[in-house]
Design brief:
It is an enzyme of class 5 (isomerase). The chain is of the alpha/beta class and about 250 residues long. The chain has 12 helices and 8 strands. α11 links the parallel β7 (about 210) and β8. The longest helix has 18 residues, at about 180-195.
Amino acid sequence: MRKPVIAGNWKLHKTIPEALELIEALKKDLADKTDIDIVVAPVFTALAPTAQSLKGSPIALAAQNCYFENSGAFTGEVSPALLKDAGCSHVIVGHSERRQLFGETDELINHKIKAVLAEGLTPIFCIGETLEERESDAMMDVLKRQVTVGLNGLNEAQMLNVVVAYEPVWAIGTGKVASTDQAQEAHAFIRGLLAGLFSTSIAEQVRILYGGSVKPDNVDGLMAQTDIDGTLVGGASLKAADFIRIARFEKI
């Protein structure tokens, strides 16, 4: 059995006081949830204070991005080593907004994944197709390229420390969500890719999350699918009640 992961990506929201207020609400209502891995990803400025607040709780801390060098003349960047120092255990890598808005390539994302793993942190590796790519029947080609290049050079031991997140770009922040069948089809395809790149045993152990307008009213159906091992939540992770309900998904 793969342990579910419920992760919240706060994107560019929440001051430090607002972040700490949300964390307090989550700690209060999710203190008993040890049967899943819960992860929150605040903005960079809130990471260190949030890490202090999370001590002793089952909630883990993620950063939303990183650079692949640990130090040097890279103005404006933050390294895996610094994120670890701030209290992070996870780093989101390759989110579609980084790809679409900031031009991140599969090769760059591969460098980041390796850098995150080298620091003993867990990368949450995001992949997914645009609406145009899906409608032109290029979805599987896109996912194959993203997975193959993004994970190039990793060995099986390293792959076991990677969490994959499938996020159809057309469903992020749009209110649209892939149907349970669409999501399951993509997740099964991704697991098959991992089996080909590594082994069936590794593929069966890697956790693959679904992201894209996940809400309290659709999480149960998503989590009922064979190959969906959790969710990467955007907007709904900013509201304590919504994220708590998602973390307390019901098996149907």
